[in-house]
Amino acid sequence: MLRHEVQPGKLVAGTVLVVAGVLYAGDAGGAWQTPWFVAIPLVTGGLCLAGAVALLTGLVRRRRQGGRTGADPV
User: Sorted alphabetically, which keywords does the UniProt record give (predicted)?
Assistant: First the structure.
């Protein structure tokens, strides 16, 4: 039994923010050069993608729950 429901939108947002952090950690450590303007499109695009995924997930869940009636599923 799951303790909580899976939220793909938060997974996408977290992944994008971790990637941005790794890019800048590599730049700070001297492994590679990351231009300063990379973070804005990466984070903004990732958050927009996460919002779209969350919206789609919500629509799918509402559609699936619409046909169910009665007690909680086992």
Answer: Membrane, Transmembrane, Transmembrane helix
Rounded Cα distance between 28 and 34, Å, is 9
pLDDT digit string, tens, across residues 18-67:
999 999 999 999 999 999 899 999 999 999 999 999 999 999 989 888 76
Give the integer Cα–Cα distance in Å for 19 and 70.
43
Cα 20 from Cα 18, distance rounded (Å): 5
Q: Is 39 helix (H, G, I), strand (E, B) or coil?
A: helix
54-60, long-range: CB < 8 A, 24+ apart: 54/7, 54/8, 54/9, 54/10, 55/9, 57/7, 57/8, 57/9
pTM of the model: 0.78
Both tokens assigned to 7: 């939220």
